[in-house]
Amino acid sequence: MTTAKKLLTAADLLALPDDNLRHELVRGKLITMPLNDLRHGIAAGRIQLRFGNFICNNDLGFGVGGCGFWLEQEPDTVLAPDYAFISYARWGDRPVTNDYPKITPDLIIEVVSIFDKQAYIDAKTQMWLDAGARLVLAAYPGTQAVYAYHDDGTVQRYGVGDTLTCDPVLPGFACPVADIFAY
Predict the structure, then answer these.
(1) Structural domain includes residue 1
(2) What are phi and psi of 115, to 5 degrees?
(3) Which of 11, 38, 84, 159 has a CA between 20 and 30 Å from the CA of residue 165?
(4) Measured CA distances, 52 to 12, 85, 111, 137 (Å)
(5) pTM
(6) Quick check: is 5 in a domain?
(7) What is the tally of structural domains in the chain?
(8) Interval 40-99: pLDDT, tens
(9) Domain that includes residue 126, residue range
(10) Do the domain assignments include residue 30?
């Protein structure tokens, strides 16, 4: 006789004790990852600075780092990108609360750590797009490249000699890729 493993909920995830690991929930299954490495942290910090300043200076919406988003229910999926942008138009008049918002951001940015499995990054990218994200960026500190996955199915690669743009999600935004990976 086999015992079925209980699927977790977003509430279960929110109630987990702090164990110094990163957790996400995919269709009720807990995904546990180690803390990120230094190159990841530097790139994520530089992304938050560049994108956050642009979003605030142009009063476009919310830029958030490390926040979980509740994408699916029964079974629950909660993903936490390194950075996300939610436009005021998408946010509407929702209140800001202490739980995982049930909304898909316009823009998702994942900084790929040396501990991340490429298959999981690919699956998360597709989950974000399927849930309604307009643009998903995957930044790779190891190769110093950023891949932009658009909701129309197109993919662009930006290398260290390129300038990253995010049209039409953040019109006017431009950042040299080399600035993201400046260590």
Answers:
(1) no
(2) -90, -15
(3) 38
(4) 30, 9, 16, 15
(5) 0.93
(6) no
(7) 1
(8) 999 999 999 999 999 999 999 999 998 999 999 999 999 999 999 999 999 999 888 888
(9) 10-180
(10) yes
